[in-house]
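hey so i finally got around to running both of the ones u sent me last week. sorry it took forever, my laptop kept dying halfway thru and i had to restart like 3 times lol. anyway pasting them below in the order u listed, first the sequence line then the structure token line for each. didnt double check formatting much so if smth looks off just lmk and ill redo it

first one:
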Amino acid sequence: MREFGSWPRELYPGALDLLTCLRGQAELACLSNTNALHWEMLCDVHALGEHFDRCLLSHRLGLLKPDPAIFERALDELGCSASEVSFFDDGPGHVAEALRQGFDAEQVDGLDGLRQALERRGWGTSPSGTP
């Protein structure tokens, strides 16, 4: 159990800085296939949960991506329509389901891929908040 709990050791370098830059540009939410043990570690070590306005976690929702129900639940929790949400994920199946449901969704590879996707949408990703 100790080894299992230690799996998610580090975040992408610069991930927390990027979240800080995005703060105030939009409501930030994470939709994560995680478990209570890993989420607790990420929050204890990196204060990850504090960087999001909403944390929609599979172990709390009882659903996993790419189940269509988790995307529907996310929209209910956020109180918005799919067209109002930009969804980024590294999982092709997760992105495909988000697109099927009408999300602005894109598969990204790592933090550089996410920055590029955000900048294409006009979101500032530098500390000044400009692209």
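and the second one:
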Amino acid sequence: KAPWYFVGLQELVSYSAVWGGVIVPVAILGLSFLLPYLDRDPRGIGTWFSRHRRTVVWIGVAIAAAWLVLTLVGQFARGPNWQLIWPGQPWMMAH
């Protein structure tokens, strides 16, 4: 397994090398860099979780949550040969 900070990326690559290794990470990074330029509304500047910035905040929360879920699945729910296992059930790893 990769170090914990790359496990989410490794989890994406396990589904598809092109999509998980190139397209999705580049799209996430591109969207993260473009969000300040796409959201040009002057209302809510300098306010945490402003109601005028709900869309941008939810996009950021969705990206962070997806990355967290992929990291947790890759770290705790993968066994030998990258098979999905139920966390805390070592008896399933033998099958």
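quick thing i noticed on the 2nd:
Helices lie at 7-15, 17-38, 54-76.
anyway thats it, ttyl
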